[in-house]
């Protein structure tokens, strides 16, 4: 038997629109979703999906 925990990534953009928590601001509790979106956009491997621009 294999046990697994599969969790869907909730982007900061989606979290802002849906008013739900996300991993970024869960750890960086002193920061906002806007901060998380800007931080992810600054990463060299920027992905619109990861930032939540498509949600």
Topology record:
Elements: H1 12-18, H2 23-27, H3 33-42, H4 48-51
Helix pairs in contact: 1-3
Q: What does this 3D model show about the protein?
A:
This protein is mostly helical and 55 residues long. 47% of the residues lie in helices and 0% in strands. α1 (12-18) packs antiparallel against α3. The longest helix is centred in the C-terminal third of the chain and has 10 residues, at 33-42. The chain is globular, with a radius of gyration of 12 Å.
Whole-number total of structural domains: 1
Number of helices: 4
What is the overall pLDDT average?
A: 78
Distance between the termini: 35 Å
- Following the backbone from N to C, one meets helices and strands in this order, namely HHHH
The radius of gyration is: 12 Å
Keywords, separated by commas or semicolons:
55 residues, mainly alpha
In short:
With 55 residues, the chain is an all-alpha fold. The protein is 47% helix and 0% strand. Helix 1 (12-18) packs antiparallel against helix 3 (33-42).
């Amino acid at each position: 038997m294999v046990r697994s925990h599969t969790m869907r990534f909730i982007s900061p953009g989606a979290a802002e629109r849906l008013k739900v928590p996300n991993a970024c601001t869960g750890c960086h509790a002193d920061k906002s979703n806007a901060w998380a979106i800007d931080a992810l956009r600054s990463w060299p491997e920027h992905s619109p999906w990861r930032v939540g621009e498509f949600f």
